[in-house]
Amino acid sequence: MFKTIVILSFLAAASATVIKIDKCENVPEDVCTITESRITPCVNGDECRLKKGKEHAISFDFTPNFSADKLKTAVYYVNAGQDIPFAELRDADGCLYTSCPVSPGVSKQLNYKLRLGKKLPSGNFPIKWRVWNEANPAQECCFLAKLSISRR
Ligand SMILES: *[C@@H]1O[C@H](CO)[C@@H](O)[C@H](O)[C@H]1NC(C)=O
């Protein structure tokens, strides 16, 4: 049993795919930089295909140029210039997914396990991921990515 778990977690780590990300226009580079984002499993990093009903591990590395005792985080579906909050991670406690506090220039990793509901629509979705200082929302880290959601 233990061996199986070790092997499975090794396979999971090995199949993490670096995904293509873009900057959010509203966040100046000197406020925060996001260096890399990874999804497991993910076949195509340009537009990861996520499966409904399956669990996906998402992680990203960010370096804030600010200090914060508490962070908030949220994922949005970007539609026609509007950010529609994703119900499962909306105004959430960011410190549950990364270690707090954060300090200027110190790289952090945020890890989140996403299970997509079976009722979500299928298709291609541009998303926005934000992490911000609870005490000062202008101090934020943000990236854009494209996901494809399918049934199988
Ligand atoms: C951090 O922010 C300060 C201004 O608040 C700026 O002068 C500095 O260049 C920034 N550092 C980085 C690494 O972006």
List the topology elements.
Blueprint lengths: L1 H13 L2 E2 L3 E2 L8 E9 L7 E4 L3 E10 L6 E9 L2 E4 L6 E2 L14 E8 L7 E11 L2 E15 L2
Parallel strand pairs: 4-11
Antiparallel strand pairs: 1-3, 2-11, 3-5, 5-9, 6-7, 6-8, 6-10, 10-11
2-acetamido-2-deoxy-beta-D-glucopyranose (NAG) binds next to loops.
Family: Belongs to the NPC2 family.
Organism: Papilio xuthus (Asian swallowtail butterfly)
Main location: secreted
Helix and strand pattern: HEEEEEEEEEEE
- Number of E strands: 11
**N- and C-termini, Cα separation:** 28 Å
CATH-assigned fold name = Immunoglobulin-like
Question: Major sheet: size, sense and barrel closure?
Answer: 7 strands, mixed
Strand residue content: over 45%
Bound molecules: 2-acetamido-2-deoxy-beta-D-glucopyranose
Describe this structure in words.
The structure is a single chain. The two termini are 28 Å apart. The protein is mostly beta strands and 152 residues long. The strands form two sheets. Strands 2, 4, 6, 7, 8, 10 and 11 form a seven-stranded mixed beta sheet that branches. Strands 1-3-5-9 form a four-stranded antiparallel beta sheet, with no helix packed on it. The chain is globular, with a radius of gyration of 16 Å. The chain has one helix spanning 2-14; strands at residues 17-18, 22-23, 32-40, 48-51, 55-64, 71-79, 82-85, 92-93, 108-115, 123-133, 136-150. It has a single domain (2-150), classed as Immunoglobulin-like, CATH 2.60.40. The protein has one helix and eleven strands. Bound molecules: 2-acetamido-2-deoxy-beta-D-glucopyranose. 2-acetamido-2-deoxy-beta-D-glucopyranose is lined by residues 30, 65. Residues 1-16 form the signal peptide. It is found in: Secreted. It comes from Papilio xuthus. Residues 21-147 form the MD-2-related lipid-recognition domain.
